[in-house]
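User: Predict the full complex structure for these chains.
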Amino acid sequence: MSSYRVPRALQNGFDEHPDHEVIELRHNGLDEVLAAVRQTAVELLAAAPQSPSTLTVRAGTVAVEMTWETAAAATTVPGAVLAPPVAATIDAGGGNILAASTVGVFYRSASPGAAPFVKEGDHVVPGQQVAIIEAMKLMLPVEADRPGEVVEILVADGESVEFGQPLFRLAAVEA
Amino acid sequence: MFGTVLIANRGEIAVRVLRACRELGIRTVAVHSTEDRDSAVVRMADRSVQIGPAPARQSYLNAAAIIEAARQTGAEAVHPGYGFLSENPDFAEVCEASGLTFIGPPAEVIATLGDKTAARAAMSAAGLPLLPGSIEPLVDVEGAARLAGEIGYPVIIKAAAGGGGRGMSIVEDPSEFSRAYQQTRGTAQTLFGDGRVYVERYLASARHVEIQILCDGYGNAIHLGERDCSVQRRHQKLVEETPAPGLPAELTARMGEVAVRGALATGYLGAGTFEFIVDTENNFYFMEVNCRIQVEHPVTEAVTGVDLITEQIRIAAGERLTLTQDDVRPRGVAIECRVNVEDPTRNFAPTPGVLEQFVPPGGPFLRVDTHGYAGYRVPAAYDSLLAKVIAWAPDRAQAIARMRRALGEFTIEGPGIRTTAQFLDRVLRDPLFAEAKHDTSLVARILEADAQAT
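Assistant: Here is the predicted structure of the two-chain assembly.
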């Protein structure tokens, strides 16, 4: 995969620019706490030897928890490490739906012609990579957020997706 | 001219930009959060892309998602509206790096003018009048206190990176200075991540008057007269009008000239606003430049007949200004009132919810810019501006009468919904406003008087 420069603005994220007339952040305190938690999570994930299956960060009484699946360690794809894993945790209303957590292009495999991450009938575990969404040349892994069997893949390889668009339908499996 | 423009905003301004694009024959792409999927602009746009969840940070402030949406839809330019990413130099830079035209000034101009101390220095160099105060950011409290003494009290300490009325303190007495200085630095660091502050003289009785400018990429710049925005509540504008009542035409002409000079000196491009304050002796002082279209731009459009959004788009597409300064001949008086979903009796707390009834006013010489419609759910996630009512008339008294008539017609009802319409009417019938003897303290006076009356 070719190298490129990530624009500064995208690395740091944007801060609210106060507008004279309109924008008034009413939950500044909450936003700051969320930002701090997110930042901590990103740093922890970067420092971890491999992607954990769960990560808990608490701010109140300072608690950090990371756990790893010992049997089915999620495979990490080269080139997919530029950004923290994107957990597709949006409940699109259809029950066991894995939805896109960013606008971008949906890919089922790590590179053209390679085997897809998952196919219909596969069982997935939380944290397992199931697809890639490319947004602004960033390859963002899409990971399962719960165990399940892939019963339907709702988007074709290479198709553009919106935020919140359903990608996979999962059926519950026995734990 | 562009084939497709992406509108990176929401609410009434997104609709306003869409209308300009449609009149120019440009296809439109609306980007929206999950919260806004039923919004007016999404219904009207040629295409729409959902870019994130409700929080602005993950949607309307999410540059990567917006750029990706532009790529998916083949947009060639991005109109940022006001607020959100409109004055973010990093976003302007990312647009250019991605091959998109940012409809606004170049990133480096936004960066310079967005830093209040840098802007003060640039405008001082261009010969604009500034309030007595520091040009360079202050380094220590002793030097700052000495400077405050030279300027003369009361003074105001402001964050260099500030805006929106936040990160500033008024100091009446030298004994309070040191504490206020440390406090403002701390607040500035927290709010803007930049603790630099500067100090200038504070004018207790002042009017806020701003000049609209347009600059093309060929060294042509004009101004389109002034707007008086003195009716404010906690630095939030409620009523704007043009011309500024009671100010000599010769004075506002001079303000227009220096604004054009300041714009040319900084390499400005597109539409912008130079803010000034005017004291009781009609001295004016540069305050700051807003590098975007403003909420109150329609009053300028009403008296000049110039479509400012269309001009922004044309300039961004590389066209020359077709207007000269002589072509700008303002006529009559225009007033804008901001109708917000807020409860004036509960300290203007926002009242989001469903609009069961929504019937905007009409009639001659009246314009309503809004994204509201009957059945629309005003989300709690964003600002409370619901509609702008703009009235034009040959003179100010008729414009006020027309506006009061319009506000009375405006029907907005829904569970828990309150609006500022009645309060705006209260402002319009205040004798100080009617006689144009008001200043930025008017709203506070009205609220105080009402509190004592009950």
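Chain A has a mean pLDDT of 67.
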